[in-house]
């Protein structure tokens, strides 16, 4: 019996699509989907069309092929056109407006968070960041890339004549009926301008991560986070690398606080990424020297806010002002770049904030990461080996099953689809305050947290999500193994 594929959900990669030339694929009604166990998986519009089968076999000469059927013929035809567009057949894909439309359709189909145009000496690469990883999707000549870049700059209201200085702008567009917002940044390189487009919002899924329910908190984490939001004053700080979901978590917190409608909430952001109903959102203009985080925060405090969200603490002045505002009855939510939750405390001190001020105002320190989720269509469950069980304290006599990523048509052969968040939470209690005031290091505080509540560490949360099938051991090792304090604590 032939395998049936829901082609509306497939995400064929650039490399897989390149196995069959566009003209042959469209003429034969054939869409290569993935390479699984050495076989090229190909979906045909008509499995009984032997001429089409022969064309595909000739194009894939020497390769083993598995032919599959489409669940919905109409959906298959749309997906085939999207992946092998008419413009590609006629050569019109060299026109910047057609190339932009094609790139945007491909980016949204693959749930890309960023779109890059990497200039080169002879050609440029269009690459997508999908689930945190860069994937090459298209290569074009340098001449086409230059026109494409100029077209993007026009859409973003940038100066197309300025090619020696970085520029920033925004694009609001519609793709396949979806309203999409893009944040555009250009920077000059030796081979031309590098363009990065961050996909900020889509009407289809803009509200998927609106609430705390959707963020992946375990029960204890959820309780600690909500308890910190329920106090009328104090500071909650999130940390993590760029793109780890800090802003998403802050927005979910703001929406929870805005729900009753009895609080004055203000956010100070650079830039404002998404509108939040019930929140006064202020855009920082630090590049022009008009409105910095610190200046905006001082001004906002004169407008009687109950809750203030500061997009990022970048300097000692902003940090001190934010923490001092908590002493005067405000709840402050903000972010800081550190590797761990304990690192937030020591980083504030490094920025010049007095330790007593940190100890008296900080309520909760949170670190987070985004780890890829194994594709539900192709993941396998395997028994954990003895060494893994030893390192994580799992039963070696009856080892648990853990997921392993494989790769299929639905995940673009990566083995992963989507991401889940892991969290490290450090509630600032009397023990933590004593360590902070005594000058304890980040590693000392981490070791205390790992001993007192290992489930609240990034590693502990990631291990729990591995057992739940929400991520894999490979993702845990890559994202968490180098965190501060792990050596000597985890074996």
Description:
The protein has helices spanning about 15, 20-30, 50-60, 75-85, 85-90, 95-110, 140-155, 220-230, 245-260, 295-300, 315-325, 340-350, 355-360, 385-390, 430-435, 440-450, 460-465, 475-480; strands at about 5, 30-35, 40-45, 65-70, 115-120, 125-130, 135-140, 165-175, 180-190, 190-200, 235-240, 265-270, 280-285, 305-310, 330-335, 360-375, 380-385, 400-405, 415-425. The protein is an alpha/beta fold and about 500 residues long. It is about 35% helix and about 25% strand. It has 18 helices and 19 strands. It is globular. The protein folds into 3 domains: about 1-85, Type II secretion system, protein E, N-terminal domain (GMP Synthetase, Chain A, domain 3); about 85-205, Beta-Lactamase, CATH 3.30.450; about 210-480, P-loop containing nucleotide triphosphate hydrolases (Rossmann fold), CATH 3.40.50.300. A hairpin with a 2-residue loop joins β8 and β9 (about 180-190). The strands form 4 sheets. A 7-stranded mixed β-sheet has the order 13-12-14-15-11-16-19, sandwiched between helices. A 6-stranded antiparallel β-sheet has the order 7-6-5-10-9-8. α6 packs across α7 (about 140-155) and α13 runs antiparallel to α15. The model is unreliable at about 205 and about 480-490 (pLDDT under 50).
Compute the separation of the termini in Å. 49 Å
Side by side, the strands of the main sheet go 13-12-14-15-11-16-19
Global geometry:
globular
What's the CATH superfamily of the largest domain, by name? P-loop containing nucleotide triphosphate hydrolases
CATH architecture of the largest domain: 3-Layer(aba) Sandwich
Helix content: 25-40%
**Quaternary assembly:** single chain
Q: What's the alpha carbon Rg, rounded to whole Å?
A: 25 Å
Please report the total strand number as a whole number: 19
What number of domains?
3
Which regions contain 5 or more consecutive residues with pLDDT less than 50?
203-207, 482-491
Main beta sheet: 7 strands, mixed
